[in-house]
Write a sequence for this structure.
């Protein structure tokens, strides 16, 4: 990558012009951040009501109401609201039988929280490659890889190279696109590997009539301020498994046994329950979800159209066989431009458009350097060329034409 302050050649300026013109054409605005939440009077009223209702902390009607709304919307049998998506990922792993000799297959192309949660659970991330078509796990490549590096013993998938058990796989629904979950399910069943989904970005994404997070054992969504629905900070675990939901609730509540006044804690637990204030905010936000999804769909169509004639960039449309929430829109630079990515991003941000690269691969970060990894050449290529463009739902209300 060439340092961005060293490159201002004509080609880079042309590319910046091309990307910025399409953003301006679609949104009609001269400045736009990457993503901003839609917050108004309903959220203020909900929080006000919660404050004066007397329950502001980790119990109260707002939490139950928020969890019920999540179940109604997603079709999950159970939803457990927690302090953030990362805590949700950590809890899913802790409650689903992770051990210190476990490896968790996880894409290298994801937000750092996916890998951090695995380390927090005392397990080992094992990085896998991503599919350029949907940004999810490349299942065919993983299939060949597992045949090479693993053997089945006592019903478990052993990594013969590390001597650990590959017990879990954590697919990530990047930008809300759902990848090859059917293929992953079949593969995971063959190797007796549990699927726990990082659905942090995928509230409102569906495939084959199922909501993200419900393809495996459980999935965690995030309600961080930059997500499609926010609670300020927050997350939730979705699952159809009643026993798992109970274990998650207990672990999220310091593993305290339910009792009106005694403090008995069965095991190491965590203080991860979502406060009622955040849940009240979330109840108001959930009422906006359909409108947000509709706005994001319009924005995606307009961007796709605007970039259809672009010379240096292609709109990332996603797999087409899922109903994505289109949380963040992305474009891909031509391969020959990847070395100029940061110069292009610098120029776009200087012009007022909040554009971002996708993440650095986790396998390149210092604290994951010793983790096992398959070759992640596709993820590397994607990371060098993907750029997120302004995607706030309110940009759709200003759509030109
Ligand atoms: C893919 C992914 N995983 C996990 C998280 C963590 O969620 P949170 O920020 O709520 O902890 C995020 C977002 O922030 C994310 O984008």
């Amino acid at each position: 990558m060439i340092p961005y302050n060293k490159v201002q050649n004509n080609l880079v300026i042309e590319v910046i012009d091309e990307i910025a013109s399409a953003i301006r054409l679609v949104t009609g605005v001269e400045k736009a951040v990457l993503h901003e939440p839609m917050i108004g009077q309903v959220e203020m009223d909900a929080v006000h009501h919660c404050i004066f209702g007397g329950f502001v902390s980790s119990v109260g009607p707002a939490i139950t109401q928020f969890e019920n709304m999540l179940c109604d919307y997603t079709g999950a049998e159970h939803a457990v609201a927690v302090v953030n998506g990362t805590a949700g990922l950590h809890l899913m792993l802790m409650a689903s039988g992770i051990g210190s000799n476990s490896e968790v297959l996880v894409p290298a192309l994801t937000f750092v929280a996916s890998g951090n949660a695995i380390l927090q659970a005392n397990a080992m991330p094992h990085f896998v490659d991503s599919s350029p078509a949907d940004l999810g796990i490349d299942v065919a490549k993983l299939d060949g890889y597992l045949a090479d590096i693993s053997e089945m013993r006592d019903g478990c998938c052993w990594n013969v190279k590390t001597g650990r058990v590959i017990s879990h796989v954590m697919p990530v629904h990047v930008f809300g696109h759902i990848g090859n979950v059917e293929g992953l399910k079949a593969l995971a069943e063959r190797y007796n590997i549990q699927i726990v989904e990082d659905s942090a970005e995928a509230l409102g994404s569906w495939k084959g009539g199922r909501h993200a997070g419900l393809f495996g054992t459980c999935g965690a969504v995030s309600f961080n301020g930059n997500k499609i629905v926010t609670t300020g900070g927050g997350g939730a675990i979705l699952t159809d498994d009643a026993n798992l939901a109970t274990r998650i609730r207990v672990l999220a509540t310091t593993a305290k046994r339910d009792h009106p006044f005694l403090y008995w804690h069965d095991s190491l637990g965590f203080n991860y329950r979502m406060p009622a204030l955040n849940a009240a905010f979330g109840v108001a936000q959930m009422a906006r979800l359909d409108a947000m999804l509709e706005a994001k769909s319009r924005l995606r169509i307009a961007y796709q159209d605007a970039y259809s004639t672009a010379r240096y960039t292609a709109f990332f449309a996603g797999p087409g066989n899922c109903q994505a929430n289109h949380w963040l829109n992305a474009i891909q630079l031509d391969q020959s431009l990847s070395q100029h990515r940061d110069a292009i991003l610098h120029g776009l941000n200087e012009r007022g458009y909040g554009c971002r690269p996708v993440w650095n691969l986790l396998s390149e970060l210092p604290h994951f350097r010793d983790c096992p990894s398959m070759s992640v050449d596709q993820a590397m290529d994607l990371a060098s060329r993907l750029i997120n463009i302004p995607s706030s739902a309110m940009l759709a209300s200003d759509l030109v034409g």
In short: The chain has a mean pLDDT of 95. The pocket of pyridoxal-5'-phosphate is lined by residues 84-86, 110-111, 113-114, 172, 198, 200-201, 222, 224, 235 (CB under 6 Å). The domain at 41-286 is CATH 3.40.640.10 (Aspartate Aminotransferase; domain 2).
